């Protein structure tokens, strides 16, 4: 040990430097000089971790590759001769005895550690508090689930997959995030559709609150997909369409729907007289929905069906709407309007898992009846089809529970173009 530095015995014999309250039995000045030095911080840390784990301060602790100053401080603490070696071992019982015998800490090492580092909270209590805090963080979802029970599975996934924990470092931040997320989802889907920034400003008080990349946008968009059934994907266009599925629009012209021979406005009447397909933007539909003059409107998934119908029948073709994949905000706006005014909607799509998902998603938003889109229709088409093998993740078909098992059994993908002649024959009969 360094010449001139006090030993534990010398510290024990020193008179207290200041009068202490009776309740404070620890001589903090001498404790700081003996145990509170940087060279012994590793020892105090090891003892504190044991207290946090509610373990006794007995046995030994070892420091690998100690510095000379650390070794000297430990020897001085225990009043022992200098030792050599690749590691430094200190018996906690011996430290406890020194502190008690010297009067520096009559209650021993545990009290000394608390005096040097502050109150010790057992890790068990810390974990319990953390669990309770995170449970409270999810509380804002309860009122939302009470009014929108279809989001219950989504809420369970938020907890199980840890999305909110990855986005927020603390339960307090998570609580704030989920408060805002629940407020946004409570007002969705937006009907009529609205600008995404305008919706964010109205509901959340900040026009950029749902900008791409923000934690709030990530949580709300995941809820939107659960609410609307919008499929997995990535990229700016996918996000645009996902927001649009709940009626939130980056703009009102990029969301469109393809139609043939719908009537009810001067522009639509002119195109129907010409028998030409029409692309309707959401902007057009919001500003003036067509008068539903047609009792039945058929819906297809692929533009090839609508194009072939226009080529073959022109102005005499019954009204058609083409989704071109997942229904856009424009398509949903149009079809909801037609259904609300008594139009019967008939739907056909590809006989594959993606087609079933599109049909199921559309059915969540507007009622429709199958147009050659049942298990029987599939079996008939698959019997003569040389289409590719069915791949992908299976999906259900609520309009005909037998359809999905039939696809699994036969394993053949049948696209709309394969049954185009049958669809065109139906349109001919309906003229």
From TrEMBL:
* Location of the DUF2399 domain: 279-427
What does the organism's lineage look like at the top? Bacteria, Bacillati, Actinomycetota, Actinomycetes, Kitasatosporales
Spell out the residue ranges making up region: Disordered.
1-25
- Which InterPro entries does the entry link to? CHP02679, CHP02679_N, DUF2399
Superkingdom of the organism of origin = Bacteria
Name any one Pfam family assigned in the record.
Answer: DUF2399
Instruction: Provide the Conserved hypothetical protein CHP02679 N terminus domain boundaries.
Output: 57-263
Q: What is this protein called?
A: TIGR02679 family protein
